[in-house]
Amino acid sequence: MRGQKAMVTAVRRPGGGLALDTQLLAGFYSGRLRRTPLIRGVIVLIEALVLGIRSLLYSANVSLEEEEAEISGWFVWLLLAVSMAVAVVLFFMAPLFLANLIKPYITSALVFSLVEGLIRVAIFVIYLSLISMVPDIKRYFAYHGAEHKSINAYEAGVPLEIEAVKKYSTAHRRCGTSFLFVVLIIAIIVFALVGLPGLGLLILSRILLIPVIAGLGYEVIYFSANHADNPVVRVIAAPGLLLQSLTTREPDDSQLEVALAALSRAVELDQEEAT
């Protein structure tokens, strides 16, 4: 859970207890740039990758406590690099190459980008559908649901207790799933502006424009979260919220306890900072 000043990771120990790790946020993640439109979207993306890997490393090492083993940081960062490369190939290069097969029959950059974008969205949905069948991923998605329920309850002002949190939704407007879906849609518009140059320039544009698309995507999510009651915004946000049915599951009480432990500690640290 990310607060204003710190990120808190809660992990269930093999023996059943909870372990908490608190990391104060560097100025890069909470300073002026983090509040600057367009730029903040890129920073949020970097933040999610860096802080997420740190949490993953901490979680993995807690789970290995009884075995007296430890995963080194370099291995996790190598895994991140490989995962990012696969993601770029799967969600940006593959749709481009598939759309390029019919490029000789297309004269409009917008139509080409639309075809490419529809392929990209299809790959994304199929990918989420397939990994959601894996037992360990199902459990991970249940923790994702616990995270959303806890934040929804906190934003509603109810006590951060298991019974009070249960009734809240597993979907949230600021979820990363919604952000990724918005990014895929915005990519259609941005890539259409590139035109129809040669394949080499098309490949280069798909890589170099990722930060631009991420920045624009974050602004859309930020705006929709602050105007949730607007009917037009509701329509725009609906596909992303619907897609969260693939990336969240109903959590059990044990999973809610973990989410609430992290959120409560993050809120406590923010309140200490305020006083």
Terminal-residue CA separation: 21 Å
Range of helix content: 55-70%
Which strands sit side by side, in order, in the main sheet? Answer: 1-2
Tally of distinct domains: 2
Main pleated-sheet profile: 2 strands, antiparallel
Number of helical runs?
Answer: 11
> Uncertain regions: pLDDT < 50 for 5+ in a row?
none
Describe this structure in words.
With 275 residues, this protein is mainly alpha-helical. The chain has two domains: 71 residues, no CATH class; 136 residues, no CATH class. The chain is built from eleven helices and two strands; from the N terminus they run E-E-H-H-H-H-H-H-H-H-H-H-H. Strands 1-2 form a two-stranded antiparallel sheet. The longest helix has 28 residues. The two termini are 21 Å apart. The model has no long low-confidence stretch (mean pLDDT 89).
What's the short story on this structure?
The chain has 11 helices and 2 strands; from the N terminus they run ββααααααααααα.
Spell out the key features of this protein.
mainly alpha; single chain; 11 helices; 2 domains; 275 residues; two-stranded antiparallel ribbon
Secondary-structure topology with pairs:
Elements lengths: L5 E7 L5 E7 L2 H4 L8 H25 L9 H28 L8 H23 L3 H22 L5 H4 L10 H17 L6 H10 L1 H17 L4 H17 L5 H22 L1
Antiparallel strand pairs: 1-2
Helix pairs in contact: 2-3, 2-9, 3-4, 3-8, 4-7, 5-11, 7-9, 7-10
